[in-house]
């Protein structure tokens, strides 16, 4: 009993003696566990919060926009097998004149029932009250829009409803599961200042838009077990003659899809990175324990000679392993939960859920503990096996000098190296596995640093391509209804407009065999100068005279290639269907588009030269005058500006990626320090005696440091070089995984990221070297004159 | 042996040849503080070592012989007293000057050899000759200790005696003025010990370096010019052997 206590005391002393290394191992373990807990917890919290939100506010499962249908059609839809609940609405685009905002904002007016709360897509009222039935001047505004524009209850905003200017008073501020992301049509990212959702009494909205007894928007939920595809087909058939634009499932709903992608990202990063950290922790533990056993050979021999069993002695070393990794795991769980709370707070702010649930992923926690335990035992196993192999007598004898051989290196011209160089080279070659693992550890740290900044690099490249190469216009104007292309002359007469280029967007379904996708067909004027189609290598692609140019992701979804034919089913106007040949594909990063020449689109639809909007090049001096004019134009549904879109993209990026990137970089830095410090400390422990004897023989501290740190330098250098390669590979892997329909991350590693990763690792190595340098000064020269204790 | 002179401490023998003195110490004391206990490792030692002589320091553990050797070798500084090597004042020297002193003037042989395991015998010697000012060729040093045929062996491929002989070659290759050996045969069996002592005897005669061997093995005393016995931090007896016995004649 007291012998066991003695061993435990020895455990505490060992821990104290190795405190630097233990702190390193514990820190790396904590980082790995924390990343796992943070990502899994925020993942499950997001998932749970979303599910609760969708369920509680009855988010619809199928959506349909149509031109105009009498209310009675809703009954027919209700009768469709598989349909559970149906809600009809009136939805209208609106131009807004927001106080304090010089450029016009656009909005989406959505009707709410007068008698009861919406049966689907209900609102969560944050502040204020519900609109009074029938009042045409009362609105509820979306919270994001209200916050971005500092709108208060009771404030009024100007609006042009169906061509008539009207003042709307804010009576409530609300959120909706349908608009977790508020993105206007054709937008890439939310711009909450310039786009908002407004809810108005159904009766009031119906009279403003001449929709009494009719509707133009339909949403529904499915009976359990119903097939969305069949329901959608049935509804499309039913609503065809009312100008139905084609029903789509929740998975294709803009906001829902964005949220899905976001959660998907979370899952990807939550598995790859913790695995890397835990592997590094296991490796460090393995090396440190191995070293400890080597230095304690005689002690182990003595313990065994005293009659301690194999089990007791090896249990002692397993305890040592657990002693380092357990606090690491506990701190990691604590820190992970805390960080998850921070991330969740960001999410709650970003997504505006009515309640953001904190859902601790018990499975993740168990997984973290299990992985940690496996790492500890795996790391200690090698050392313990060696303890068991030691026979008491051999253990008590001093260790024979480690074996070195003049191996392959000698033949490769090692003879030309200095003696110190040979020492470094032979030491590395003698334990190739360990050298490789050390290199790998440093490489992992460097690669995570690169990986951590990859998202920012990729997003910035995307923004650069979008806002500097694709979009070359200053403003985009969307019309309330199609106009002839001659509208360009009208636009060019507006103050400040230098060039106006009309474009046409047509909602359509592309069908290839059994595959189909709803897209916006984009008709561009031949030789458009303001809007170009650009692939990921900044390759600008000409719109073919005939045939379709598809985003490669869309071609992939439809399983078609150049030369194949797809059916184009227009969802507007006369709803013509016609075959079109795929002329080519373009590797765009954003969205899924189908482009064709304006003339070609006209021939396909068999109608006139129409435009749904125009790109404008504007004299910067006159832009505010132009904004004021555009606000008042009745035919304009929305105006968006390239500069503000770019700015809001940057803001969104900083908000959503800043924290995660910070966490990753902080942890990778910890890994780099722990890795370099531990390998240096182990080297010092193993070679301290040899170096001290050289100091006795008259070598200076500097000369000795070169012999010791040379090896660390080689490891750091090799680690950095392979870390860069590994980082490239990780980024390529992620780029391959992040190929969503909404966007695809490009493969890019910026020079800034590379130099950042290199300097962090070099800094960590230099700091470790400095600690070692300091310790070299304290080498006990006298002790080497004695035999080993 | 050129400088075999009378070897009594200076105070007792004022007629000693001053020009041949390599080491001189006066009133050397060393006090270690071990926790709350003061350990007097040396208590006022007076001593002179002469050029080229082979001195054996005999004493039980704790007698202060190692401390004395460490001070002479520039690894430790006394608490009080004077100690000089030729014209170097070892008392006032700083760390850098001591390193330089060891590098230029002193060769060490350790009980546990302390060769660099990743370097061959030849390279171990060459490592030291690289930083020396007037070294002999590494091969020559190894030939002196009878290891000309083991040049390219690594320490792990050599026996204990061979490793110690490489260590001796490493210590003498720089042509040191003093060769300090701390229990050089402590880890060796009798036969191997004799071979190592033969090597020490040979290099002492060949190079004329003042050689100090500390040991608790009284048998080794026979091969010395002088034998200095220590006990409890003080010199209790200095004797001069009438004849240096050849190592082969030694038994213990």
H-E order of chain B: EEEHEEHEHHHEHEEE
Largest sheet of chain A: 6 strands, mixed, barrel
Based on Cα principal axes, name the global outline of chain B.
globular
Note poorly predicted spans of chain A: none
Distance between the termini of chain A: 27 Å
Helix/strand layout:
The complex is a heterodimer of chains A (789) and B (252).
Chain A: H1 2-17, H2 19-56, E1 62-70, H3 73-79, E2 83-89, E3 91-97, E4 105-112, E5 124-128, E6 138-142, H4 143-148, E7 156-161, E8 164-175, E9 195-201, H5 202-208, E10 214-222, H6 228-239, E11 248-249, H7 254-295, H8 297-305, H9 310-351, H10 362-389, H11 392-396, H12 408-411, H13 419-430, H14 432-470, E12 475-484, H15 487-492, E13 497-512, E14 515-524, E15 533-534, E16 540-541, E17 548-551, H16 552-558, E18 565-570, E19 577-586, E20 594-597, H17 598-605, E21 610-618, H18 623-632, E22 636-641, H19 642-696, H20 701-737, H21 751-776
Parallel strand pairs in A: 4-9, 6-8, 14-20, 17-19
Antiparallel strand pairs in A: 1-10, 1-11, 2-10, 3-4, 3-7, 5-8, 6-9, 7-8, 12-21, 12-22, 13-14, 13-18, 13-21, 15-16, 17-20, 18-19
Chain B: E1 21-34, E2 37-50, E3 54-58, H1 65-72, E4 80-85, E5 88-89, H2 95-105, E6 106-109, H3 121-130, H4 138-144, H5 160-172, E7 178-182, H6 190-207, E8 210-215, E9 226-231, E10 234-240
Parallel strand pairs in B: 3-8, 3-9, 6-7, 7-8
Antiparallel strand pairs in B: 1-2, 1-4, 4-5, 9-10
Helix pairs in contact in B: 3-4, 3-5, 4-5, 5-6
